[in-house]
Prior knowledge:
Layout (H helix, E strand, L loop, with lengths): L3 E5 L4 H17 L2 E8 L6 E2 L6 E2 L2 H24 L5 E7 L2 H11 L4 E5 L5 H7 L2 H8 L4 E4 L1
Parallel strand pairs: 1-2, 1-6, 2-5, 6-7
Antiparallel strand pairs: 3-4
Amino acid sequence: MFSKILYCTDGSDTAEKAGAIAAAMAKQFGATLTALHVFHPPSYVYPAFDGAGFIIDPVDANRFAQEVQDSIAKRTERTLKEYGVPYEVRQETGYPADIIVRIADSERFDLIVMGSRGMGAIKAFLLGSVSDRVVHHAHCPVLIVR
Length: 146
């Protein structure tokens, strides 16, 4: 039924639950499993000490991004290794929903598995959510784990 599963993670507990389900499904169907984390850089800036304006040191920003991605990759690998299925871990940078949908479509994944962030109704209405955008724009089925 499913031969290529894309598991999307943000490193949260809910995403870890989704990883367990994605791994179990990959094992059951003999599917390939790709774990994807999309780093979305913060949109805020830090004040410069010289009073010249607002800056983010690119070296610090890149270091922070790499630390976040490495931490999530380690947690993801611990979860997936328990199921004994082969998997690939990928890291991308950008707006998560757009990257997830693009990769799922261009690489012809059969299923996307991801956690729900559990936003309240008002917050989700005002801000939207990655899982909501993926569900509405993906070409394939999306399994949201709570």
